[in-house]
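> forwarded from #structure-qc
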């Protein structure tokens, strides 16, 4: 018996080997293939196929990479359906990640990317374009494509591609997106490697990417303060209590939100000269609304704030480069702007001495209560009105007399020359 035992083992092993094809055929009938079976073909580095865009792509699967992915314990057919036998058809149904990720899939399909994908747009990003394919890692993993350190670069792959944007008029121009790189957020991300700064998904959302005109969008005008407030919480609270915040919350969409003053992709710190909220540019930024005649008439706002400021001592000094002088924000506040009738306002009569005293220590109450935005009109300032009228007429008459004097002088010279010519 001992002599035949090895031979018995060999027979048993041979029987198992002969049985393997039958096992594989059974798995084929069930539509369940082990990774090992699939790798008989997909381990070939030269294996190619065609993607939904019609481009030739490699069908090689690096098993070592797959074994480190988040899906390493799943069967191939869990994602790749339509396989009934091996070798399978060249064209298989698209992978549907929503079979497992239902909530994310619903958001994706409601968003602009998913809607475009369902329409058959070959440029529309699918799940695997952002998350990867056989190399998908958890978002918390530093090497994941959707880790915060990498995700913005994934978005930029399409949004700075001039060929893609040229095919889609609804997409912002690449230059608009590239402006993010030079913004205060972009510099923190690209130059300093910070992942706490605002990235694409923080403002636009990850799967539920909606146009700014959609009330559900994080970029819908009424939702912008809350979106920015997810990082700038204290500033949001100040803004919500301001005249602008209350107006926006009540449905006045013309009221300025964060992006109206600071910008969108091109946000710069106030310390930079090109920033919309630098001391040099604040008056011009505020005037985009406060010098709008239609808005002033609709909401009973005073007009000509920018022009009257520029005519003041502060405005003239600012015009010549003195950025330490008072601007709109110095007097009215920044995010906590309130009407002058509100006792909390910096320009309320009870608070003006303190407000002006920030630059002019010891200023008297009467000086602090003097008018600032003075127009040359009887209602605003009779003195300025009559002085301006006087000089307007005086200078006009004086220039007219100068012109008449020159004309009389020229006519006299011409006559004098003619008289001398006739005498000779």
């Amino acid at each position: 018996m001992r002599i035949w035992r090895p031979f018995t083992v060999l027979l048993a092993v041979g029987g198992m080997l002969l049985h393997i094809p039958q096992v594989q055929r059974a798995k084929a009938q069930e539509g369940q293939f082990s990774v090992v079976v699939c790798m008989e073909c997909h381990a070939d580095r030269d294996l190619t196929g065609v993607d939904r865009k019609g481009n030739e792509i490699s069908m090689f699967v690096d098993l070592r990479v797959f074994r480190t992915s988040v899906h390493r314990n799943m069967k191939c057919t869990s994602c790749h359906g339509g396989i009934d036998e091996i070798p399978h058809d060249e064209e298989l149904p698209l992978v549907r990640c929503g079979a497992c990720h239902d909530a994310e899939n619903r958001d994706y399909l409601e968003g602009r990317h998913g809607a475009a994908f369902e329409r058959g747009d070959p440029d529309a990003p699918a799940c695997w374009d952002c998350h990867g394919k056989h190399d998908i890692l958890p978002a918390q993993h530093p090497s994941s494509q959707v880790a915060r350190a990498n995700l913005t670069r994934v978005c930029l792959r399409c949004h700075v591609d001039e060929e893609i944007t040229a095919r889609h008029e609804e997409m912002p121009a690449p230059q608009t997106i590239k402006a993010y790189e030079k913004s205060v957020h972009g510099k923190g991300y690209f130059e300093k490697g910070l992942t706490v700064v605002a990235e694409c998904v923080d403002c636009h959302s990850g799967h539920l990417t909606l146009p700014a005109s959609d009330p559900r969008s994080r970029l819908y005008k009424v939702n912008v303060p809350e979106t920015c407030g997810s990082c700038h919480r204290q500033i949001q609270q100040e803004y919500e209590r301001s005249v602008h915040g209350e107006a926006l919350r009540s449905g006045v969409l013309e009221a300025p939100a964060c992006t109206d003053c600071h910008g969108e992709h091109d946000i710069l710190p106030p310390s930079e000269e090109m920033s919309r909220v630098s001391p040099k540019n604040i008056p011009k930024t505020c005037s985009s609304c406060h010098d709008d005649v239609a808005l002033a008439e609709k909401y009973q706002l005073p007009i000509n704030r920018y022009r009257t400021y520029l005519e003041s001592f502060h405005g003239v000094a600012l015009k010549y480069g003195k950025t330490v002088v008072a601007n709109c924000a110095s007097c009215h506040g920044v995010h906590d702007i309130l009407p002058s009738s509100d006792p909390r306002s910096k320009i309320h009569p009870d608070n003006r001495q303190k407000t002006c005293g920030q630059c002019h220590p010891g200023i008297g109450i009467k000086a602090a209560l003097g008018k600032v935005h003075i127009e040359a009109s009887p209602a605003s300032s009779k003195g300025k009105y009559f002085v301006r009228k006087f000089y307007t007429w005086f200078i006009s008459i004086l220039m007219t007399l100068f012109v008449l004097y020159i004309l009389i002088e020229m006519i006299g010279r011409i006559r004098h020359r003619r008289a001398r010519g006739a005498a000779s």
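QC bot note: The radius of gyration is 37 Å. Residues 248 and 254 are 8 Å apart (CA to CA).
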